[in-house]
Amino acid sequence: MAESLTSASEKAGLPPGSLVHVGEVPELATRITVVDYSVAAFEEKIIESVEDILAYRDTDSMTWVNIEGLIDVDLIEAIGRHFNIHPLVLEDILNTHQRPKFEEHDSYLYLVMKSLSSKDEVLSVNYEQVSILVLHNFVFTFKEKQDDIFEHVKHQLKNSKGRFRSQGSDYLAYVILDSIVDMYFPLQDALDEVIESVEEDLLANPSAPTLALIQRIKRELISIRRSVSPIRDLLNGVLRCESPLIKDGTKLYLRDVHDHALRVTEAIDSHRDIVTGLLDIYISSISNKMNEVMKVLTVFASIFIPLTFIVGIYGMNFEYMPELKWRWAYPALWVGFIVIPVVLLVYFRRKKWL
Amino acid sequence: MAESLTSASEKAGLPPGSLVHVGEVPELATRITVVDYSVAAFEEKIIESVEDILAYRDTDSMTWVNIEGLIDVDLIEAIGRHFNIHPLVLEDILNTHQRPKFEEHDSYLYLVMKSLSSKDEVLSVNYEQVSILVLHNFVFTFKEKQDDIFEHVKHQLKNSKGRFRSQGSDYLAYVILDSIVDMYFPLQDALDEVIESVEEDLLANPSAPTLALIQRIKRELISIRRSVSPIRDLLNGVLRCESPLIKDGTKLYLRDVHDHALRVTEAIDSHRDIVTGLLDIYISSISNKMNEVMKVLTVFASIFIPLTFIVGIYGMNFEYMPELKWRWAYPALWVGFIVIPVVLLVYFRRKKWL
Amino acid sequence: MAESLTSASEKAGLPPGSLVHVGEVPELATRITVVDYSVAAFEEKIIESVEDILAYRDTDSMTWVNIEGLIDVDLIEAIGRHFNIHPLVLEDILNTHQRPKFEEHDSYLYLVMKSLSSKDEVLSVNYEQVSILVLHNFVFTFKEKQDDIFEHVKHQLKNSKGRFRSQGSDYLAYVILDSIVDMYFPLQDALDEVIESVEEDLLANPSAPTLALIQRIKRELISIRRSVSPIRDLLNGVLRCESPLIKDGTKLYLRDVHDHALRVTEAIDSHRDIVTGLLDIYISSISNKMNEVMKVLTVFASIFIPLTFIVGIYGMNFEYMPELKWRWAYPALWVGFIVIPVVLLVYFRRKKWL
Amino acid sequence: MAESLTSASEKAGLPPGSLVHVGEVPELATRITVVDYSVAAFEEKIIESVEDILAYRDTDSMTWVNIEGLIDVDLIEAIGRHFNIHPLVLEDILNTHQRPKFEEHDSYLYLVMKSLSSKDEVLSVNYEQVSILVLHNFVFTFKEKQDDIFEHVKHQLKNSKGRFRSQGSDYLAYVILDSIVDMYFPLQDALDEVIESVEEDLLANPSAPTLALIQRIKRELISIRRSVSPIRDLLNGVLRCESPLIKDGTKLYLRDVHDHALRVTEAIDSHRDIVTGLLDIYISSISNKMNEVMKVLTVFASIFIPLTFIVGIYGMNFEYMPELKWRWAYPALWVGFIVIPVVLLVYFRRKKWL
Amino acid sequence: MAESLTSASEKAGLPPGSLVHVGEVPELATRITVVDYSVAAFEEKIIESVEDILAYRDTDSMTWVNIEGLIDVDLIEAIGRHFNIHPLVLEDILNTHQRPKFEEHDSYLYLVMKSLSSKDEVLSVNYEQVSILVLHNFVFTFKEKQDDIFEHVKHQLKNSKGRFRSQGSDYLAYVILDSIVDMYFPLQDALDEVIESVEEDLLANPSAPTLALIQRIKRELISIRRSVSPIRDLLNGVLRCESPLIKDGTKLYLRDVHDHALRVTEAIDSHRDIVTGLLDIYISSISNKMNEVMKVLTVFASIFIPLTFIVGIYGMNFEYMPELKWRWAYPALWVGFIVIPVVLLVYFRRKKWL
To answer: pTM of this prediction?
Structure first.
């Protein structure tokens, strides 16, 4: 389902900085997962309160706090207070209609983007807003619901102790970003398939449901594009930013994600190009079919209408119609009934109507 | 109703700086509301003349003067004289066909934009030009008519004494800007709904009124876009401006409004994309319907025309037609009347025409 | 009538700097009007020769020389010689197929643009090239024909002695520019009206003349756009230019003209957007009508073709047709003639064909 | 005939710098014309070998060598050797599928562009590649074939001894450039005419040949655009270049050519805009015609089908048909035959189908 | 076959820097060819292992290692280790869904692009990713399969000992780049031909297979464009890069390749312009045909339907039909049967329906 285009209207009129959760995901319990690691150690646990987070604040190890579910406004507010996050950032985290963007603040970086995944059915794309706060040795991620999109990241952290665990918060942020961007590829492949099957349908047998499907794909593409294309700017922003939080070595990796984002955006544009043409093909194909039908009608009508006229003539009741008495008139007419259609059919075939 | 595209022609030919009210809003009385506040105090009252405003000029408290109705040219002129406003700015305030823009002057900032609201009926958008003059400790707003679009702002001022009331004129201007931009979101949601319902209509039952409606939406979108999209530039101007009237702390908030404006513009562009495609769907859908109708006609005609020809044959009055005397000729024909249509129908179904 | 797209071909092949008048306006006598003014004095008179102009060259008062008609090549050449104007500029003044542009020379500025006015009939736009030479205390304007487009400016000069008359040549140039740009607004309003009436026609009753009219509007818009849209660049050039001939105070006014030019260009773009869609509406509307007609044909044919077949059956002359002898066969058939159409009509209405 | 889009494939695979002539112009003899001039003298003669050129190399007079025909690869190679031209430049001169471009080398400038001229028949545009080498006091021009496109330039050189002959090689290059750009204008005028006549055809009587013609114009425009639009960049390059070979005084003239190139490009874009719309008009016009035809068919069929049914009824042979015996039945039917069509016609006219 | 749009999904979820081959080319053995040359010597041989490459690393001669087949991940990894290549670059070499790009590293340059070649059948384009690593005196090329696209380059190296063999690795890279870009030209020519033949088909005899073919061309063009157009940026990057690995003399040659890439991209854009218009022509052409068919039907029906009605009248069995007894009624009717069609035909021809 294409995401609502705007819908921030629910909050219109509130004073700026008001912390209210705005979103469409049904209210769920909030789950806080803490992953704390260093080259030597790795710990993952689910915690209950902000106080538990504070315990990790002043350690040397890297800490990743993943918050799933955005209804607990007090929690977000407490994190903001303890980690010195600007109220507008907290507001953006809670309002899930953000445009993907990157903001550099004094002691932290704020990134917000959409993770897209397609469910069982092909055209039901799942949009989820992911906010990332990058602090020194600390990364917060905020998600709308409890799912497993970060399982891969955790798995990597747990298993590859070498390079990954020795890196700082910027590298963790990169891996998270990379895993979100990589989720766009299977989605594109799915779209590819749907569009190709629609294309075949169109040429073979254009129908009203195909029309509705094209429109649905188009809407979905517009919606996907709005979620994906600002990511290039976001990454450009990160690459240009001179915050000490991002090391030069990590930028090489971020450039790689940027290349991926570029490829995804180009793929979406190609899809749009193709889908835009589908309606024209639909109309062409329908016109084609109608032309076929018209030809049949014309051939039928053109052959039988003159014949019917002829038989009508000899159905008239005039007293003085000499032909009616002729011995061979009736058989002669039958010859005409056979010759006329043959002549017309040959003529029509010459004109390429048959 | 889409706003007239230009219509500044009423004034063409007058010398520059001539103060004349140009607009479509019927002449109303002018209402001047003064809101004077500091952290400690809050006062709101309706006043009658410029002299009453001057009383607030040299106090330390923040003063917001909201002028509703632009027919009292003398009033505007007097404000210009007392607060040292350039005649061209006064002219722009009075001429309600301005393009949203931002101008930085020595002792004040001038912003002009459109507030958009949709009335009861969905596609009747209400355009109102709002001019904002930001001076030191003083904000003027000029509106075309008396309505309640600033009620929220006043309400916030009255109730949240803390942060809001301790800020300067730039923050008040930000809150006003924010409240105007936030009004675009419900409008977008309304458009969303209309477009979706038109889309369904199109696929199910395309008709001439749908066509007219699509054209109306298109026009309205063009008109809305012209009012909304320059706001990004306006806000970029404000963000880049180095006037001491705008504090750095406020810029963070203005950037937030800028993000909102960006989202609205993107939403409008998406709407335009979708609406542009609707006409193609309309044509496709109509072609579809016509194809259906054509098939029915063709089937009916193709089946009965040959049969009618056959019955015509035996309605002829030739003397020598041996079949007419045969005992089983008539029942045999009836068999043909049943077999021929069945054969044709099977054939047509094979060809996917039925 | 849309202006010819190029048509400078008449001059192709001549050496550069050749002074030849190139234009479509029929040859007229040249009229030279001099307006000489200072805060204290105002004088307007028609003169005959270049020598009369020279009399004003070395006075302190501001002088505006308006030359209407471009066939007197010697006159232009003499002005060039006396006022030290580059031959290429003189060539551009005489060739009335210039693209609007601004050129900064050492001792003068050169501006060329199109004044557009619509005559009685709505779509007959009148294009006239206006060249402006801005020197110290001296302004030349060159026009193709004698008309009253500068009457307003002279009227203002004559009446408002205060500010206007104390300003230099840059301010006069601004007022002239402003009056030309202001002439675009009523043109836009006229276009607005034509397009709206075409739109209504289209939906109600699409016909071949409407088609021709749409194409004419499109061509006119392309032509207007080519004359108007370079004016933004022209004004940008003037605003950026650092010639002492343009005072800073005047730039504020020029920025105002720039805003107007921006509004006009946006209006043209909106018009183009709307007109581009009109052809699609035309096709949609025609398809709609055809669909209606097709339905009627189908209903008529589908109802009467089977009935005609039935009456054909009982018109056959077989000897052994027992029904022909039955007492109630004929009335029973009449019942069928009534029931069959009713059943079909109900069926068609269910299918939404009626 | 639209120029082949690429066709450099003939040379693909050769080592870079290989001097091979690549082009479509049939092999012709090469003609070398030398024009040597100073303020005092003017000499034009046809020479045979490179050695003859060398005689002019070290004189003070300006020399223009015009080489027509590119099959004599040795000649080009010898020029390259004697005048110190880079092999890649020589390669570009010989390969006539170059994109117009400007290259600044140490001791010379290289320009390559297309001269376009239309032959007798309107849409048969003639493309010829012209390369210009500008050295100190020496200009080479290389053309594909022998024609008279430079006659004007020679004529001017011969006759106007004053300014022209006293200028350097940059001014000669400017005059050549100017003469090539000026050749685009008559071409545009021709296109203008063709498009206008197609437009009229379309509205009056759309047919298959018109369709083919539109497609041909479209292709030609794409081809022309590819030859013409890079000339703006070429001239920008020349204007920005700081080589001592180009004097400041000449740049003023080159800016004039740049303005012309801009106008041509804008004209092509306008043409494209118009031509793009022509197909829509074609479809609209065809739909219109078909609608007319359909109406006639529907009216004919709708009027006569019911009447035929009625006469069929009374052609039945039932024994008990009381009407057949009535005295006034037949005349009464005739009244029906007249009344029914009139009623239907009035109805149809009301529905605007006639 | 158009290349899959994205398809990097196979690798989604793996940790960054994981060396896995991602591609569609069936697994083949890897072939390593070493070409070692200096002005004096030239040696080409096929080797088996990385160790054999290392033998060439520290010699003064230029070495080109061409690796065909990307399944041997260990090999790539070993090269990376020995030549100090960043893991992300190795990953990009192995993943054959890269966007063409250029990366400058400290001791080497990395280029990746697509070579395109068309097989026997015209629209079956063959995409192959080619990665180039440029080190000091060492060039690596990585290809997906074993083919002969570099035969030309080797041939040139072997034969022209002079300039080519005395140049460094940058010149070799240039020749390889040039040979890849030159392969685009024959492809464009092939496309040119296909499109032209489709165009002719369209106008003469539009059919469903033509429709499918247009869509296939469109998809192929989108795919080709995605492979080709980033090459301009790639070359811009190379030209701007200040690495000592690229000598100034070579940049002149690279600028030449850049010009070629520009021409190819422009050709693709022109093709796209043309193909986009083809569907409109298809619809126009189909409408045309349908119009023809409709006219025939209408003429047939309009002529015979009234006649059939007339003969129906005199087939009625009323007792009192005086005409039936008239001597000349029947011949008179025959006159009508001839006159009425003639009159109608003349009328139709006047209306341009025949």
So the answer is: 0.84
